[in-house]
Design brief:
alpha+beta; Butyryl-CoA Dehydrogenase, subunit A, domain 3; Nuclear Transport Factor 2, Chain: A; 305 residues; six-stranded mixed β-sheet
Length: 305
């Protein structure tokens, strides 16, 4: 294969590595493009294009993450990763690790790690790279990488829920949830929510919040039933989709523009967390973005009729 063909063959893997390190679709795409420029400019052919390109995109992503962490500390409100609908990289042998590492919950746990720990965890635990390749990618010794991997795994394991939902059970519960969601069925929603359910949004100060962080089945069910009915009456659409490998939805206005995304954490037969991304800067890769302020104003007018 030509260098360009080798790169295109590996592009899905490179994006998937960069996205998990960065939690940003746009930054991951930029990191992949910069990787190509460096690969194209290299005067020699790599013995292993996969190892070379994976190391290059990881180093670029680590550098970007270091500067991004400063911006995230000053971020207005709760920071969530940019929602991803489809992971371009598929590997049946590591399907479980890939799906688990893509969830909003896992990416938020990764935010607690240092950039080096995060990169080592992603390369080793998610994509199964040997420690030699991991060491080359992050510029540390194999022994140091083993220590980084142990620390990262300890942090990740401590933050994970103890019992993951069966994928089919999770899909069935999510279908019932969104049926009740569209119908404004208060009792139906409340029955599917954990008693201590959280509904949290990321607007970045650039979009309205349909309620700040809410806790408890009663409050969350009441807010949803108060808003979704009027939203649908003004032509809004709730489009169920997988969001970061989890059950979720895209809410669109009457023109099909994206208002926000929702992602559900489901455990022990209940919805534990609902995460909404409303920041328009994080939605542009999904298509044209709605004026959420205008949508909320119209929804509120419909509520009062």
């Amino acid at each position: 294969m030509t260098p360009a063909e080798e790169f295109e063959h590996l592009r899905p893997l490179l994006f998937s590595i960069a996205y998990r390190i960065l939690g940003s679709v746009s930054e991951a795409e930029d990191a992949v493009q910069e990787t190509w420029l460096r690969y194209e400019a290299s005067p020699t052919r790599a013995a292993s294009p996969k190892a070379f390109l994976s190391a290059t995109v990881s180093r670029i992503a680590i550098d970007v993450l270091r500067s991004a962490r400063v911006r995230r500390e000053a971020y207005v409100g709760q920071w969530f990763p940019e929602p991803l609908l489809t992971d371009p990289y598929e590997d049946p042998a590591r399907a479980a690790e890939l799906a688990d590492s893509l969830s909003m919950a896992a990416l938020l746990l990764l935010e607690r790690l240092s950039p080096l720990e995060r990169a080592v965890f992603v390369l080793r635990e998610v994509f199964g790279f040997g420690f030699g390749d991991v060491a080359s990618a992050v510029g540390r010794s194999e022994a140091a990488c083993r220590q980084l991997a142990v620390r990262a795994r300890r942090h990740m394991d401590a933050g994970r829920a103890r019992f993951a939902a069966d994928r089919r059970e999770r899909a069935e519960l999510a279908e019932r949830f969104f049926d009740a969601f569209r119908e404004g069925d208060f009792d139906g929603l409340r029955a599917l929510l954990a008693a201590d359910v959280r509904m949290v949004g990321d607007s970045g100060g650039k979009a309205p919040q349909w309620g700040e962080s809410l806790f408890g089945a009663e409050k969350v069910a009441r807010l949803v039933t108060a808003i979704v009915g009027p939203f649908l009456r003004i032509g809004g659409v709730v489009e169920t989709r997988e969001v970061n490998g989890q059950p979720g939805a895209i809410l669109r206005d009457r023109d099909g523009k994206v208002v926000n995304t929702l992602a559900l954490d489901i455990l022990d037969g209940r919805v534990q967390t609902i995460r909404a991304v409303l920041n328009p800067d994080k939605l542009t890769h999904l298509g044209p973005v709605a004026n959420a302020w205008a949508v909320v104003r119209e929804t509120n007018r419909a509520r009062r009729r």
